[in-house]
Specification:
Largest sheet: 6 strands, parallel
Number of strands: 10
Structural class: alpha/beta
Distance between the termini: 68 Å
Strand order of the largest sheet: 1-6-2-5-4-3
Radius of gyration: 28 Å
Low-confidence stretches: 1-15, 181-206, 546-577, 584-591, 600-615
């Protein structure tokens, strides 16, 4: 980490306040730290809620205060295993001093280096993590590598945030877990400290939305002045109640035309849906407010939206003949044109609400992210290419003009609201063209750049290079998603480019689990997944990951695999596991196929783990 080792000093007091996050948003906050801020998280956890939650998640959890857990050997083995297999490694501290330079945690760089606090440094400097490997304990330097899914989390019980040095904010993403997010009366605020908001905005966080139930109630009561007063205080005009009815929806429901007109002029969304799919237009038609229905139609509200429960449209629930006539005579082709105009009004309103250059940068990044996700979802590979080339050209232009190196506004690793990357979307849609572009195009950008070393990527290549093992918010990898959606064209390409079928989600399931046939209670096959499963098996035969995530890529060739697994029968799962365990113990060179299968079958039947044959 170079000079980074000296930054952990507890003598200085920070000027930056810490964002507060409720426990239910902890997974999202960790995802934000990794994928948006590109830092490991430092969690201030005075109630120890976060520690209890993380202790029972997949990964390793160690208590720094426990001398048995935190021996040098235990730390080393836990860290190497976590970084190799892409697991979360959490260390709980009672006090912040546990992260100081003088902490015994960092006594030995070959057991637990202080550079782990800086995610970019730990990943980039190979000599740091390679020094952790122990060949005498089975760490093969030729095989072991650091997984991009590895996450280190520091969880501190102390509430004394004044002891956090300002420099620590530069290398870790710091936030505090609280029992309940602070609010004022009935107003539920989604915002944090303004200084932290600017920092979050610089890294691409969403627009800050302060929700107010009082604002929604003022609209319901027809109190235009009270509504505007709350908006002037910073509460969002799209504030909603517990059923996701927005202020505009409440005004439309009650027939308050002046408030409806004011909100539409301020940039409110006329197509915002409640939790049951009811739009402001639907509710206005239901209550027979003709003038409000007309105003919403002219603002681009879609009359074809249906309630998810009754499946009725605005026309179906209209309470007056006048409203039904207005809806029946409406030309639906005008709606799309008006929606485009409405988007411009909403965008102008959003820009007017933005106060700082940091938030303007956030807006630009978020718009590009949404456009990339939309194009990927629609299968527009050329559109994705052009947009990313525009981003790369912007970076090149600033570099040529001698400006400070700018961070690209987007890469192929942008995510949708579910945490899916562009490659994950391609896997879901079985979009071979898009997947091929995301996995291979970056290689073409290295061909003519002779200034780079063999293992170095250009800035432009980093924009286009996709991670074949990226996960969504629930931990599903691209390979898992491809198997689940039976994407037979994309799955082989993912496997050929490093996709790992053994990586598990937060539900402890991997691609092999998903590839099993769906059975009914009598164990009859309801849905066969034999074809997509065969893709995984073919990959395993030529040296890919084994059936239980313990295959040894490159050690045993396809022909050897085929001979070794030949004749296993329907109950071969347990035998394959035993064979792979023997391989890992170094016995694969002496395995005789016939005798091995015979011995394992006897062993399994003896233990009662395989069904006995009827005589």
């Amino acid at each position: 980490m170079g000079g980074a080792v000296s930054i952990i000093s507890v003598d200085e007091k920070p000027m930056i306040k810490v964002a507060e996050v409720p426990l239910r948003q902890l997974p999202d906050a960790i995802e934000e730290a990794i994928y948006i801020h590109e830092k490991f998280p430092l969690i201030i956890d005075p109630t120890e809620q976060a520690a209890r939650f993380l202790k029972y998640q997949t990964g390793t959890f160690l208590n720094f205060e426990d001398p048995v857990q935190c021996t040098k050997k235990s730390l080393n083995r836990a860290l190497v295993g976590s970084m190799q297999f892409g697991r979360t490694f959490t260390v709980k501290f009672d006090k912040l001093q546990g992260l100081s330079v003088n902490s015994p945690l960092f006594d030995s760089p070959t057991s637990f280096p202080i550079e782990i606090l800086s995610r970019p440094t730990f990943f980039a400097q190979e000599d740091i993590w390679r020094a952790l490997l122990r060949p005498e304990l089975g760490d093969d330097p030729e095989i072991v590598s650091i997984s991009p899914e590895f996450v280190f989390i520091a969880c501190v019980s102390s509430d004394d945030v004044t002891q956090i040095p300002p420099e620590l904010f530069q290398i870790m993403h710091v936030f505090k877990v609280v029992e309940k997010q602070s609010n004022n009366g009935d107003e539920s605020s989604n915002t944090v400290d303004p200084e932290m908001d600017q920092i979050a905005a610089l890294y691409g966080a969403k627009e800050i939305v302060r929700n107010s139930l009082e604002l929604v109630e003022a609209v319901f009561d027809g109190d235009l002045e009270g509504m505007q007063s709350l908006i002037d205080k910073g509460y969002h005009l799209e504030s909603c109640d517990g059923r996701k009815h927005t202020a505009l929806s409440e005004a439309a429901c009650q027939g308050h035309l002046p408030i409806v007109s004011h909100l539409l002029a301020s940039g409110a969304d006329p197509n915002a849906l409640s939790d049951t799919g009811r739009s402001p237009l639907w509710r206005a038609a239901f209550n027979g407010h003709v003038q409000v229905v007309a105003a919403l139609l002219q603002a681009g509200s879609n009359p074809e939206f249906r309630d998810r429960i009754s499946m009725e449209s605005a026309f179906d629930v209209a309470q007056s003949e006048e409203v039904r006539q207005l809806l029946s005579e409406w030309d639906i082709r005008r709606t799309e044109q008006l929606m485009q105009q409405r988007r411009q009004v909403m965008l102008a309103s959003l820009e007017a609400r933005i106060k700082t250059s940091a938030e303007r940068e956030l807006l630009a990044r978020n718009l590009i992210r949404k456009e990339l996700v939309e194009k990927a979802t629609c299968g527009d590979t050329e559109g994705v290419r052009q947009l990313l080339e525009m981003v790369a050209a912007e970076c090149r232009s600033s570099s040529k003009q001698g400006q400070q190196k700018v961070r690209p506004r987007a890469t192929v690793e942008v995510r949708n609201d579910g945490g899916q990357s562009l490659l994950s979307i391609a896997a879901q849609n079985d979009d071979l063209e898009l997947a091929q572009f995301l996995l291979t195009h970056w290689k073409t950008l290295l061909d003519d750049d002779y200034s780079l070393s063999s293992d170095e990527l250009s800035d432009e290549a980093k924009i286009f290079k996709a991670n074949p093992n990226s996960r969504d918010l629930k931990g599903w990898t691209c390979v898992c998603i491809a198997v689940f959606h039976d994407s037979r064209k994309v799955l082989p390409l993912l496997l050929q480019n490093g996709g790992d079928p053994s990586m598990r989600s937060t539900y402890n399931k991997n691609a092999w689990d998903i590839s099993k046939d769906e059975l009914d209670a009598a164990e009859h096959v309801i849905k066969s997944k034999a074809e997509i499963r065969q893709v995984l098996l073919d990959h395993a035969e030529v040296g890919g990951q084994g059936l239980f995530g313990s295959g040894l890529p490159g050690r045993v060739g396809g022909a050897d695999n085929k001979q070794l697994y030949e004749g296993l029968g329907d109950d071969g799962g347990a035998m394959v596991m035993n064979i792979e365990m023997m391989r890992e113990n170094g016995d694969c060179s002496n395995i005789n196929t016939t005798t091995t299968v015979s011995k394992i079958k006897k062993k399994i039947v003896k233990k009662g783990t395989a069904p006995s044959k009827k005589k």
